[in-house]
Design goal:
The chain is α+β, with helices and mostly antiparallel strands and 702 residues long. Its EC number is 3.1.7.2.
């Protein structure tokens, strides 16, 4: 472990003497604050913050980040307040330390919840100052390097958290070297035997490959010299966790992975990169479809390079990356590669710094929209995908999205309002399903409508955290407004029996009942009624009577329009349609479920006013309703086509069809048909009866 003097010497190569002295002062302050504290290994506790500062010094981070690294555990472990650090070292350093400090005062039901809350706090601190995440990553890296002193269970928990959150964050910020170390250390802690076996196999394979690697390297260098270009050529080693992931995810044998030879060519400028590409394509045949130009279109984390795969001597596949020195530095250290933190806020950050800020802004937006910390962390994990697709807006702007993204993900990436009002899309000028996965190079155009709302089915196929979070948020708001509206109608229906309405009651009485049910405002109580968590009958009794006298049942049935949305659903057991006699069952959390009056499933509670309510269909009811028909007919060729043709001729639509033979002559077909009402259903049945060989048609009624 280097001492503070050794670190100070290293810092003096790129920091002013005054700044180095501030870092020294932070070290001595931390040493005094942690006096008497020891790590599990038995070392003085201050060795940990010193090691974290050394990791940041390797990245050439600024003096405030190094000071925060020295002090990052002071608030949590020594009882020194943030205000004291503010007085001693200034507001910026105090804010950094506070951002990195873990949550300690709160008790959580599960470790997952604690982890999620901790990450939420860190996301908010990152939004104020991106250096928070760099100090946090360095802190986690040193903890991973010294994991062996912990118990097996704790080791595995920390390693899992690192692989799931910290390694992808390092990757998202373009910090390749740190990500590789996180993954290898995490893999070793999670699966020590597997890591050891792969490490041994790699060592053995490296010895066998040495001769071929040297030959390929020589031929590339000779090719560059012949073309008059200078460049550094080096063999690229595959890291243990990467090999393990490929073996597991792609079901490949170890030998298949090690048979690919990987090289990196580092040159002086961008122009030379493309010239080198032409030279190596002349040297060995390129593999079609394997060339990627990340210089023209950089990855989301700022990574730039040319990638190509060649057929080498004896048909050996060779993977080549070509980049400049600056790109090499950026690929390894990402946002920290050329850290120029501007104290002047007017200076706009550029390059990887700007991309990192953009990502953090998106994370913060998700945090504000998420229902709880666990939902937030799930969205962030989804958003940390390493692979991207690059698509274009109709005006030619490039959008980076995770692999597997759909047009809905694209719409939310453009703007939240575009996503919320999206109804269709055109991919390369052709209409396409919203669920279709996008491919790199496609041009995507979103068709939106002012009154449109997000569809719950979108949650089954969206990929990005932003889309998922905003859809959930919009559905919650939509569900709440629909629940309040239905709750108000249900309550007014019961109150109408007493010639009363909610707005006729005294505000004091209403507020007293709202408080009685432990709600803050009337809307919360109405939402509960609409969701079926409270019965309108019981609430009305409390509103109208202090003694809780029974109320007569309400006179007229409640009219259903079909536009009530998420809080009203139609029972699948009896599939009611407009025109049928119906009853509503209030189900906790689901709202109202509409059943046929004669449905057997609600027979026992049919006359309970707290569970069921009489319904009718409004004259202006709209929508399509599914109904199940059972058709018995003589077996004949083209049976399904005949049935489909008849339903279509009556303007119906078949949603589902299944068939079984009762004997060799008679077939029984189950049809789920979409209709508008009973009159429309009668028209469909009349068409089906007109078919030759139809014996009987019956409707399933629960």
């Amino acid at each position: 472990m280097p001492s503070i003097d050794v670190l100070a010497d290293r810092l003096s190569t790129y920091l002013d003497d005054d700044q180095v002295n501030l870092v020294r002062r932070a070290y001595f302050y931390a040493e005094q604050a942690h006096d008497g504290q020891r790590r599990r290994s038995g070392e003085a506790y201050v060795t940990h913050p010193l090691a974290v500062a050394c990791i940041l010094a390797d990245m050439h981070m600024d003096h405030q980040s190094l000071m925060a690294a020295m002090l990052h555990d002071v608030i949590e472990d020594t009882g020194i307040a943030k205000e004291a650090l503010d007085t001693q070292f200034g507001e910026s350093v105090a804010e950094l330390v506070d951002g990195v400090s873990k949550l300690t005062q709160m008790n959580f039901e599960t470790k997952a919840e604690a982890q999620a809350e901790n990450f939420q706090k860190m996301a908010m601190a990152m939004a104020r100052d991106i250096r928070v995440i760099l100090v946090k990553l360095a802190d986690r890296l040193h903890n991973m390097r010294t994991l062996e002193v912990l118990s097996g269970e704790k080791r595995r928990r920390i390693a899992k958290e690192t692989l799931e959150i910290y390694a992808p964050i390092a990757n998202r910020l373009g910090m390749h070297s740190m990500r590789i170390e996180f993954e290898d250390l995490g893999f070793k802690a999670m699966h020590p035997m597997r890591a050891e076996r792969i490490r041994t196999a790699v060592k053995r394979a490296r010895g066998n490959r040495k001769e071929i690697v040297n030959k390929i390297e020589e031929s590339i260098l000779h090719c560059l010299a012949r073309e008059g270009m200078e460049g550094e050529v080096s063999g690229r080693e595959k890291h243990l966790y990467g090999i393990y992931q490929k073996m597991r995810g792609k079901r490949r044998a170890f030998n298949e992975i090690m048979d690919v030879y990987a090289f990196r060519i580092v040159v002086d400028k961008v122009d030379t990169c493309y010239r080198v590409l032409g030279a190596v394509h002349n040297l060995y045949k390129p593999l079609p479809g394997r060339f990627k130009d990340y210089i023209a279109i950089p990855k989301a984390n700022g990574y730039q390079s040319l990638h190509t795969t060649l057929f080498g001597m004896h048909g050996v596949p060779i993977e080549i990356q070509i980049r400049t020195r600056e790109m090499e530095e950026l690929a390894n250290n990402g946002i920290a590669a050329h850290w120029l933190y501007k104290s002047n806020e007017e200076d706009q950050p550029k390059g990887s710094h700007a991309r990192a800020r953009q990502w953090v802004k998106g994370v913060l937006e998700m945090q504000q929209r998420a229902g709880n910390s666990l939902e937030f962390i799930e969205s962030v994990k989804i958003d940390l995908f390493p692979d991207e697709v690059y698509v274009f807006t109709p005006k030619g702007r490039i959008m980076e999205l995770p692999k597997g993204s759909t047009a809905v993900d694209f719409a939310y990436a453009v703007h939240t309002d575009v996503g919320n009002t999206c109804i269709a899309c055109r991919i390369n000028r052709r209409l396409a399903p919203l669920s279709q996965a996008l491919e790199s190079g496609s041009t995507v155009e979103i068709v939106s409508a002012p009154g449109a709302r997000p569809n719950p089915a979108w949650l089954n196929f969206v990929v990005t955290g932003k889309a998922r979070t905003h859809i959930r948020h919009a559905l919650k708001l939509q569900r709440r407004s629909e629940s309040i509206s239905l709750g108000e109608r249900l309550l007014n229906k019961v109150l109408a029996s007493f010639d009363s309405r909610i707005d006729k009651l005294s505000p004091e009485r209403v507020q007293a009942v709202v408080a009685e049910y432990h709600q803050e405002v009337l809307e919360d109580l109405l939402e509960d009624i609409g969701l079926g968590n409270r019965m309108a009958y019981v609430v009305a009794r409390r509103l109208l009577s202090d003694n809780g006298e029974a109320l007569p049942s309400s006179e007229g049935p409640l009219a259903i329009r079909g536009t009530e949305g998420l809080v009203l659903s139609y029972a699948k057991c009896c599939t009611p349609i407009p025109g049928d006699p119906i009853v509503g069952h209030l189900s906790a959390g689901k709202g109202m479920v509409v059943h046929l009056d004669s449905c057997k499933n609600i027979g026992e509670i049919r006359h309970n006013p707290e569970k069921c309510i009489q319904l009718s269909w409004a004259k202006d009811v709209t929508g399509e309703f599914n109904v199940e028909l059972r058709v018995e007919l003589e077996h004949q060729r083209g049976l399904i086509a005949l049935l489909a043709g008849s339903v279509n001729a009556a303007d119906g639509n078949i949603e589902k069809i299944s068939m079984d033979e009762r004997d060799g002559r008679i077939s029984v077909v189950q049809l789920v048909v979409s209709v508008h009402d009973r009159v429309h259903l009668a028209r469909v049945i009349r068409k089906l009866r007109g078919l030759i060989g139809v014996i009987r048609i019956t409707r399933a009624r629960g």
